[in-house]
Specification:
By secondary structure, the chain is an alpha+beta fold. A hairpin with a 2-residue loop joins β17 (536-541) and β18 (544-549).
Length: 659
């Protein structure tokens, strides 16, 4: 390692003095004063997760105050997952170029880039899909290295997730001081002891990284702040660059129960957020920021310090919900799952409403994040900007603000938005891209008010067509795909994507020559006609769709209901056991399926006779996802036809499985 880690509070001041480099100190004293830089990164904080951006449930007074003291960006972007964003911050490159495209920084490093593109796949997979690089390449000239070489003291404190083994730790990427835990997506525990025991339970036996245990029960968000304050105090007389990358608000969702209990008594006037665990964790993150800002005031460093507040991806709307596949695999007696259920029930961590979807998605909820930049006297207080900026832009922007050039050896895709911060100009960039060949894979381009998503394969249960075109000025919730109506705009933006792929050398998915649909057990056409089973298995037989339960709440989901509500659902079905069913939905401005007004109930009688059931659906606006819950737990349900009719009498969607 380039320098020793922090090994306990009692040694910090002595260590930092020992690490001081006289030659660097001399060069700094002779050079013009440069601003300090603090990069405060939150994990999984969504666009609407603070008061400054519109939340009426979370309590974030320090974040909100920072927004009144600096510039709040309303159209800032990150990657859909954390590691790609972190790599882009430090390199200034798109993920397609640096190859870290998913949250895999905790996995063993690959031997070479050749391993990132499989040469073969099984007959059930239509495409050969690239995999993510698991480490930040040491050959990159990182932001920390550029600043260190210009005389800055540099520190990384908190989550890293850019390399499992020591050659790829922050100490080897330009950070002279490093305090980071084992580089998994989230810490083993939010409370000391922070290590992992042999059986995987929290314990002091094994630490990967340089974090040391504190007093029993110490909260890691507070501990990281303590370490950051120690670094600031030790380097108050010279320029410093501090990465304070918090673990909150990522899983395993450790929280202070006193805070959580208070939020459990609170409701959101908007009716969209309401998870007390997430509110508790955000409160702790907000307090961390407040302590950092107070230290700058105390040391009279406020005016000479640039503070960047940012998140690594959109808010998490999937974990610990009934639809969370990973959560379903966890044991029913899992202490963390039971704790979540106690406080949050089936609520997702947060809601990104009015944005669509969340973390892991190319929709706005997955990539649009809060961004605030403060530099008193240089950035107008209380300013807002609609400039489209992102993680690739942090590198050139911070170097320009520090009066430094981008190193000649570093290829940078980002553009400096320093003129926006100074109020002297705008970005000249034609378009901004997001490359994400994972989960629901695709690539997105943003140009002006327009956004195009190009998908690699047809997946009607997740999206509509290979191209999705949205006008974000008119349709922030991405409810209406305009691709069919604006083919010329699709062609224009699609050409930009082609140029992006060529320029970055993106590893583009390739057809799998071994693909055989029959080998995958799937016919060439979807017999369910786009209906997606959850908690059940389906088959078309005898002119009907047969639904058999595999869980407690089986349902069929669809994104194919078009037009604006209200609707009437017409169902022709029969049920062995009979029982209650229901229809639930979300629209572009709704997130929770179980929110008031988003459920319509019905009953199927038991027996072998076909029944015609009509259900009124008081949907307000365009439904994004509709779920049909069926009483299949007691025996199979067969469906001959489902028809959804709008208020004007027009068919909004129809599925027929027989004559």
């Amino acid at each position: 390692m380039d320098g020793p880690p922090f090994n306990g509070r009692m040694k910090h001041a002595l260590n930092i003095v020992t690490w001081a480099i006289p030659l660097i100190a001399a060069s700094v004293s002779a050079a013009p004063a440069r601003p300090n830089i603090i990069f405060f990164l939150v994990d999984d904080m969504g666009w609407m997760d603070c008061g400054a951006t519109g939340s009426q449930y979370y309590e974030t007074p320090n974040i909100d105050k920072l927004a009144t003291q600096g510039m709040l960006f309303r159209q800032a972007y990150a990657q859909p997952l954390c590691s790609p964003t972190r790599a882009s911050i430090l390199t200034g490159q798109y993920s397609a170029r640096h190859r870290i495209t998913s949250a895999t920084g905790h996995l063993p490093p690959q031997a070479s880039d050749e391993a990132l593109m499989p040469k073969a796949a099984g007959p059930g997979l239509p495409l050969l899909m690239p995999v993510s690089k698991n480490f930040l390449e040491p050959s990159q000239v990182t932001l920390a290295e550029a600043l260190r070489d210009a005389g800055y003291r540099t520190a990384h404190i908190g989550k890293w997730h850019l390399g499992l083994t020591q050659p790829y730790w922050p100490e080897r990427q330009g950070f002279e001081v490093a305090f980071h835990a084992e580089p998994s997506p989230g810490p083993a525990s939010y409370f000391s002891p922070y290590g992992v025991s042999a059986d995987g339970a929290p314990g002091p036996r094994h630490h990967v990284g340089t974090i040391t245990d504190g007093p029993a029960g110490e909260y890691i968000t507070d501990r990281l702040t303590d370490e950051a304050l120690t670094f600031i105090e030790a380097n108050k007389s010279q320029p410093f660059f501090l990465n304070l990358w918090q673990y909150g608000v990522h899983g395993p969702w450790g929280h202070k129960e006193a805070y959580t209990a208070a939020f459990a008594k609170k409701t959101d006037p908007r009716g969209v957020q309401g998870n007390p665990i997430m509110a508790s964790m955000l409160k702790s993150v907000d307090e961390s920021l407040g302590r950092i800002l107070a230290k700058l005031d105390e040391l009279k460093l406020t005016d000479s310090t640039i503070v960047v507040f940012y998140s690594d991806n959109g808010g998490n709307v999937h974990s610990n919900t009934p639809d969370d596949e990973k959560g379903k695999k966890r044991k029913a007696d899992d202490a963390r799952l039971l704790d979540w259920r106690k406080w949050a029930g089936d609520r997702p961590p947060t809601s990104n409403v009015p944005l669509r979807n969340g973390k892991g998605s190319l929709y706005e909820g997955g990539i649009r994040v809060p961004l605030i930049v403060r530099w008193p006297g240089r950035v107008a207080a209380g300013a807002t900007s609609d400039a489209v900026v992102g993680c690739i832009d942090m590198y050139p922007t911070l170097l320009e603000l520090a009066g430094l050039a981008v190193p000649a050896a570093q290829k940078v895709d980002g553009q400096s938005f320093a003129p926006v911060l100074r109020g002297t100009g705008a970005l000249a960039r034609e378009a901004y891209f997001t490359w994400f060949p994972h989960l629901v894979p695709g690539v997105a381009v943003r140009k002006g008010d327009w956004k195009l998503i190009r998908r690699f394969t047809e997946r009607p249960q997740d999206y509509e067509g290979l191209y999705e075109l949205f006008n974000l000025k008119d349709d922030l919730g991405e409810t209406t795909n305009l691709a069919a109506k604006r083919p010329e705009k699709v062609k224009e933006l699609d050409a930009l994507i082609d140029g992006f792929v060529k320029d970055t050398g993106a590893l583009y998915p390739k057809p799998n020559p071994a693909y055989r649909p029959a080998a995958a057990g799937a016919p060439a056409k979807d017999p369910a006609k786009g209906l997606v089973p959850k908690g059940c298995k389906i088959a078309v037989t005898g002119g009907a769709l047969r639904v058999e339960a595999e869980g407690q709440a089986p349902f069929l989901g669809t994104t194919q209901v078009k037009g604006k509500g209200p609707f009437t659902l017409q169902l022709r079905a029969r049920s062995v056991s009979g029982g209650p069913g229901k229809v639930q939905w979300v629209t572009g401005d709704q997130a929770n399926f179980n929110a008031p007004g988003q459920t319509a109930e019905f009953t199927l009688k038991s027996g072998a006779e076909w029944q015609d059931v009509t259900v009124a659906l008081p949907v307000e606006g365009q439904p994004r996802i509709v779920r049909l819950y069926l009483p299949a737990a007691g025996g199979p349900v067969e469906i001959a036809r489902i028809r959804c009719v709008g208020a004007d009498g027009r068919c909004a969607a129809e599925w027929a499985f027989g004559p």
